[in-house]
Design a protein that fits this description.
- By secondary structure, this protein is mainly beta.
- It is built from five helices and 20 strands.
- It has helices spanning 4-9, 17-26, 137-147, 186-191, 218-223; strands at 14-16, 36-44, 53-62, 67-70, 73-76, 85-88, 100-102, 105-111, 124-127, 135-136, 153-161, 169-175, 193-199, 204-212, 234-241, 251-259, 263-271, 281-284, 287-290, 296-298.
- Strands 9, 10, 11, 12, 13, 14, 15, 16 and 17 form a nine-stranded antiparallel beta sheet that branches.
- The protein is globular.
- The two termini are 18 Å apart.
Length: 310
């Protein structure tokens, strides 16, 4: 749902998460009689009652509305701080998850296995061995998937400290604000966020959830001098267990994770069979164009047979 073009062009920045959930139902990708673990990365705008921020989607959903239990939360920068604080994505007056999202929602719906004894679990469980100076976890997972021809998958990473003298190193990034106008320089894209390096502490666990699939954004690649968009996946992280310290992001976009010999790191990589991109469009003449980039998405509308999803 949405993506980097909404960030780059600062257009079509807000949408309802219900649209993503109901699109999945209408397209037959998820079924009302099955429970799903929904994980991934999203954004939420600030409102009068909630600070918004970088969202870690982590819910167990079922039924026609795809509702259920959730630990979804967001990370925001309190006034003057360079490190994020965490807030559940709900308010006292609205105990259900807040529905408004911003810029993107990149999540996976993983079905519950009815009987694990008779159905093989479709996933890969990895344990990353730490290295002196730190093993680059995102590089290692990407290389593992590529070597096995897995191009689209959900990522779950669970990290803790085995030796507090040599804990893992985390690089996290949190937006200061949602772009108000089109970004013109890479420096603008850098300055709009707080990227910080910090270590995990004893008693804390780092939980990371994200997705990887072939992403392509012509405008972003041009903006970044040819660099691809999220070639190692889009992953958000949250600290659980002992509360985040003043010099740690509580919730953020995971930019890097370095696994040291003092790190316990497990990864669950689940291949995804179908990937759907939902993008806002507007009709111009006989074409549909993206509301984000203004690029033509579909030409010659009158030659296409359309079906309404209900």
């Amino acid at each position: 749902m949405q993506g980097i073009d909404a960030f780059l062009f600062a257009r079509a920045k807000y949408f309802r998460d219900e649209a993503a959930r109901q699109a999945a139902v209408a397209l037959g990708l998820v079924h009302q009689d099955t429970s799903y673990l929904r994980i991934g990365a999203a954004g939420a705008p600030p409102t009068a009652h909630h600070p918004g921020g970088e969202v870690v989607e982590h819910s167990l959903l079922s039924g026609p509305a795809l509702a259920g239990a959730s630990r979804t939360s967001s990370g925001h920068l309190p006034g003057g701080s360079e490190f994020s604080a965490v807030a559940p994505l709900r308010t006292d007056s609205s105990p259900d998850l807040l529905d408004l999202r911003s810029v993107y929602s990149h999540t996976a719906f993983l079905p519950r296995i009815a009987d694990p004894a008779t159905a093989p679990v479709p996933g890969h469980l990895l344990r990353l061995e730490g290295a002196s100076g730190g093993l680059n976890a995102l590089d290692a997972v990407t290389a593992y998937a590529r070597a096995r021809g897995i191009t689209s998958y959900a990522i779950r990473m669970f990290v803790s400290v085995a030796d507090e003298a040599d804990p893992p190193v985390i690089v996290g990034r949190v937006l200061r604000r949602i772009p108000r106008r089109r970004l013109r320089t890479v420096q603008e894209a850098t300055d709009i966020a707080s990227e910080q390096i910090f270590r995990l502490r004893s008693g804390q666990e780092l939980h990371c959830f994200g997705t990887h699939y072939p992403r392509r954004s012509v405008d972003w690649e041009k903006f970044r001098g040819g660099k691809p968009y999220e070639p190692r996946g889009h992953i958000h992280m949250t600290l659980r267990g002992r509360a985040a310290e003043a010099q740690q992001h509580a919730v953020s976009h995971l930019r890097e994770l370095y696994v040291t010999p003092g790190t316990e790191c497990h990864v669950v990589l689940t291949p995804v069979a179908e990937v759907v991109s939902v993008e806002p469009v507007v009709q111009r003449g006989n074409s549909l164009v993206s509301r984000c980039s203004s690029r033509t998405v579909i030409e010659e509308l009158d030659r296409i047979s359309w079906s309404r999803l209900t």
